[in-house]
Amino acid sequence: MTVDQTRHSLDGRHRPMFIGGAWVEAASGQTMETRNPATGEIIATVPRGGKRDIERAVAAARNAFDGPWSRFKPHERQKLLLKIADLFERHWEEICVSDTTDMGLPIVRARGNANRVLGMLRYYAGMATAIHGQSIQNSLAGDIVSYTRKEPVGVVGAIIPWNAPTAASVWKIGPALATGCTVVLKPSEEAPLTPLLIAELMADAGVPDGVVNIVTGTGPEAGAPLAEHMGVDKIVFTGSTATGQSIVRASAGNLKRVSLELGGKSPVIVCADADLERAVPVAAMSVFANSGQICIAGSRLFVARSIHDEFVARLAAYAGALRIGNGIDPNTEIGPLISPRQLDRVQGYLRAGTEEGARLVAGGNRLSDGALAAGNFVAPTVFAGVSDIMRIAREEIFGPVISALSFDTLDEVVRRANDTPYGLAAGVFTRDLATAHQLSRRLHAGSVWVNTYHAIDPAVPFGGYKMSGYGREGGAEHLDEYLNTKGVFIRID
Ligand code: ADP
């Protein structure tokens, strides 16, 4: 059933999903609630999409791919992406409020992401006209001209988590628009609202019907059928490693291409010569930003023994001074966790840290005074005296918890830092150029930041080693993930 096309204002109680250019309900008629994690209030209901809705969305995406969208020239796709970027810029505050209300990100942080997200859209716009094959001067098989073409893979299924709905949506949809693919995006059931708003803005900018479709629903009911669908040519996924593994298995039916950005347990190494004024806040916020719900969180903090105690004391003071609350308050630095389930999970790790013998030096508890009582708030937490085998040093917590460990030599810290199934990111603080280069080379991670953290640039590839996934987002390699290469041979003698 199609409902009237409406603007997604924040006071709306029900938001339909977007398939084939129409705002529609789930075929089952079922809905699900989404809550503000700072207050526990239900802020909207959305359709609880399932297999039949995925079928419908994939069919719409296929029709668009074969139809009008295939006739868009690269410069027309570029113009469209630039228009989307302008529209996003005009509606940026609306996007930020949507993210803050739906998943708790402090509004100041959401606003601060403008450069990155708008930059991504404009980067893809530039790349839309930079796609090209090669002319190859071969002579093995007679007088033949040969060249390669880059062609869009087709219908892309995108499955995203709740921790960065805006950036994740743009990271999945932007390259599709640049290359000429179409998309069925399944947002997280925990934070479906901003992707719906994004689809609306894209439609307003002139994205043709069926090019971008959003199916709201749960992982098993809507995500799994998308991953399995024989009519989907590629899946791009960001989320947990366990779900990534099940997506790879589901993809086997038609051997669709898959790219995965998964979990991490990223090391941050603070050398004895580091500038502590800089290292303390950056190391702290490498985890505490977004309440630790960041795949690249630098959650294993290795500090040179000679500065360990001073560093940990400064870190604890920094953690204790952070302002925690509803992210809609512009003074808030740290918002809530996404859900009561996530709160339980993080509290489990807080208990595990203490039980395994780590020393709590900051936080360690749920915050439930006054206005915080209805939300999912945890104090920014620092454990010291952590050993490599403790669960808090091995497992991804996805909460505001730093595990501090000390080290003596660079060889030792490299070995320990790399001793993890993950390989998403790493941080290094040093003033020595040789140490910076050596550690950047020797750390097994898709991104290494030196004397900074979190820097993401649309032109620089981002992605994992080992069980943090494969495929890259950002840079020219990102576009390649959405393209097939065709070899053409033309005999001319
Ligand atoms: P998290 O919720 O910790 O971010 P998940 O990997 O559970 O990580 O979720 C990320 C996304 O994957 C969400 O959109 C979720 O609905 C979806 N998802 C969960 N399970 C599956 C599955 N079996 N198949 C496809 N998608 C899934």
The coarse overall form would be globular
The end-to-end distance, rounded to whole angstroms, is 59 Å
Strand order of the largest sheet: 15-18-19-14-13-21-22
Please state the structural category: alpha/beta
Number of domains: 2
For the structure shown, list the relevant keywords:
single chain; 493 residues; alpha/beta; Aldehyde Dehydrogenase, Chain A, domain 1; Aldehyde Dehydrogenase, Chain A, domain 2; 5-stranded parallel sheet; 39% helix; disordered N terminus; binds adenosine-5'-diphosphate
Secondary structure elements and pairings:
Elements: E1 2-3, E2 17-19, E3 22-24, E4 31-35, E5 42-47, H1 51-66, H2 74-90, H3 92-103, H4 107-112, H5 114-128, E6 135-136, E7 144-152, E8 155-159, H6 165-179, E9 182-186, H7 193-205, E10 212-214, H8 219-228, E11 234-238, H9 241-251, E12 257-261, E13 267-270, H10 276-288, E14 300-304, H11 305-321, H12 340-355, E15 359-362, E16 366-367, E17 377-378, E18 381-384, H13 391-394, E19 401-407, H14 410-418, E20 422-423, E21 425-429, H15 433-442, E22 447-450, E23 465-466, H16 475-481, E24 483-491
Parallel strand pairs: 8-9, 8-11, 9-10, 11-12, 13-14, 13-21, 14-19, 18-19, 21-22
Antiparallel strand pairs: 1-3, 2-3, 4-5, 6-7, 7-24, 15-18, 16-17, 20-23
Helix pairs in contact: 1-8, 2-5, 2-6, 2-7, 3-7, 5-6, 8-9, 10-11
